[in-house]
């Protein structure tokens, strides 16, 4: 965690994006398994990428919404360890959700549900703001300075 001269490393940025995206979907899968898996007979990618599953009209839809929001909170924690800089949190959060939007468009078409947009907009805001807060807290910690005394005999 050295904050000296910043060197632009595109491979590091790509690796961070890939790691963050994978951890986000892994966490989303865990939350969906616990919250939605007990309600449905068969889990599928529909709950990950189809905008129609994000709805407030069913209990299962509320469980999907909760899974997405809990995953964004976990994503903020991942950014604390992967990104480590508060000023980069918004960039990485937005990138994660833009990639998610593209995958959703490929999977089920353009999301026409206002609920989907609200949930994902809230998710990117929570992930960015909480990630920034956590990173700022880490950046502002005092640096421990120990003094070693030479023992004279």
Automatic annotation (TrEMBL):
<dbReference type="GO" id="GO:0000139">
    <property type="term" value="C:Golgi membrane"/>
</dbReference>
<keyword id="KW-0333">Golgi apparatus</keyword>
<protein>
    <recommendedName>
        <fullName>Protein SYS1 homolog</fullName>
    </recommendedName>
</protein>
<dbReference type="GO" id="GO:0034067">
    <property type="term" value="P:protein localization to Golgi apparatus"/>
</dbReference>
<feature type="transmembrane region" description="Helical">
    <location>
        <begin position="116"/>
        <end position="136"/>
    </location>
</feature>
<keyword id="KW-0472">Membrane</keyword>
<keyword id="KW-0653">Protein transport</keyword>
<keyword id="KW-1133">Transmembrane helix</keyword>
<keyword id="KW-0813">Transport</keyword>
<dbReference type="InterPro" id="IPR016973">
    <property type="entry name" value="Integral_membrane_SYS1"/>
</dbReference>
<dbReference type="InterPro" id="IPR019185">
    <property type="entry name" value="Integral_membrane_SYS1-rel"/>
</dbReference>
<dbReference type="GO" id="GO:0006895">
    <property type="term" value="P:Golgi to endosome transport"/>
</dbReference>
<keyword id="KW-0812">Transmembrane</keyword>
<feature type="transmembrane region" description="Helical">
    <location>
        <begin position="12"/>
        <end position="39"/>
    </location>
</feature>
<dbReference type="Pfam" id="PF09801">
    <property type="entry name" value="SYS1"/>
</dbReference>
<dbReference type="GO" id="GO:0005829">
    <property type="term" value="C:cytosol"/>
</dbReference>
<comment type="similarity">
    <text>Belongs to the SYS1 family.</text>
</comment>
<feature type="transmembrane region" description="Helical">
    <location>
        <begin position="90"/>
        <end position="110"/>
    </location>
</feature>
<dbReference type="GO" id="GO:0043001">
    <property type="term" value="P:Golgi to plasma membrane protein transport"/>
</dbReference>
<feature type="transmembrane region" description="Helical">
    <location>
        <begin position="59"/>
        <end position="83"/>
    </location>
</feature>
<dbReference type="GO" id="GO:0005802">
    <property type="term" value="C:trans-Golgi network"/>
</dbReference>
